[in-house]
Specification:
This protein has 285 residues and is α/β, with parallel strands linked by helices. The protein is built from 10 helices and 8 strands. Helices cover 52% and strands 11% of the residues. The protein is globular and about 45 Å long.
């Protein structure tokens, strides 16, 4: 992506080097992270997983010295967040609304959020309780090395997807869906979650469309990186990798084909009116 000369967001809380104290904070960047990635991508409850690991303790400062690569990743994340602020502010304005951007927390190893404790193993997430996107930047390395989904546009897609959940929160979609989920069985609840996640993928594509239109930010190969990332994190692919078979009723993020399709649709149209994943027949998603 072409990002030289772009502004960075001020809506960032850099907590790298601060973690949660306690005897069980020792998260490795190996098997535990892979398990956490699978929990996150399959729509499980990473907070429950983390709370089992993070019993007790408070916030502590650790000896942390960011590398040049760390600082580059932080600047990248802040620049992408700024891009989402610009795009969604204008889209909301055009639709007679005012956009209130989310905050972003950068952390290393572990932190706390309005939705509970979090660690590197949970992957990036959006917490509607405090309207904040949380990300340990080491996740980008995990995308590249564990999931085969590297590339700057792939990383930008992850951030834009979480911001997409913030857009859903502002529009009332999250609340509406969560209320519906309380009235249906687990299979139907999962299907509602798939619709949420695919719409967030679509919104990520909408952001990329307008960001590129304004800044000419997308380079050759970028779109392919994003679509590959969407494909690599499909429920069907991740279930096959983790257990050797798929359970469609347990899908709650969407298949590889669905996630790629909705991201691509957003990239091609740039029109939020085309992102209604709730009125489409589930079999046609």
């Amino acid at each position: 992506m072409r990002l030289d000369g772009r502004r960075t967001s001020d809506n960032v809380d850099d907590r790298r080097g601060r973690g949660i104290a306690g005897g069980k904070m020792g998260f490795g960047l190996g098997g535990t992270i892979v398990i956490g990635l699978i929990i996150w991508f399959l729509g499980g409850d990473p907070m429950a997983f983390v709370s089992q690991q993070l019993s007790g303790g408070g916030i502590t400062q650790s000896a942390y010295t960011p590398t040049a690569e760390d600082e580059e990743a932080a600047t990248f994340a802040k620049t992408i967040l700024a891009g989402t602020e610009d795009v969604w502010t204008e889209i909301f304005r055009q639709n007679g609304m005012k956009y209130a951007p989310p905050r972003m927390v950068l952390f290393s190893q572990a932190t706390t959020s309005g939705c509970g404790s979090a660690s590197s193993s949970t992957g990036p997430f959006y917490c509607p309780a405090d309207k904040t996107v949380y990300i340990d930047l080491s996740f980008f390395n995990e995308m590249k090395n564990q999931l085969g989904a590297g590339g700057d546009f792939a990383y930008a897609y992850v951030i834009a997807h979480e911001v997409g959940h913030h857009v859903q929160n502002l529009l009332g979609t999250l609340d509406k869906v969560h209320q519906q989920q309380q009235r249906v069985n687990q299979v139907e609840s999962n299907r509602l979650n798939v619709r949420l996640e695919l719409q967030a993928d679509f919104y990520a594509g909408v952001w990329a469309y307008h960001d590129n239109k304004t800044f000419n930010s997308i380079e050759d190969g970028d779109v392919e990186e994003g679509l590959n990332a969407a494909s690599q994190i499909g429920d069907d692919r991740l279930q096959m990798q983790s257990q050797g078979y798929t359970v469609p009723d347990a899908f709650n993020h969407g298949t590889s084909a669905q996630r790629s399709r909705w991201l691509k649709k957003g990239l091609q149209t740039g029109n939020i009116a085309n992102g209604d994943t709730f009125s489409v027949s589930y079999s046609q998603l």
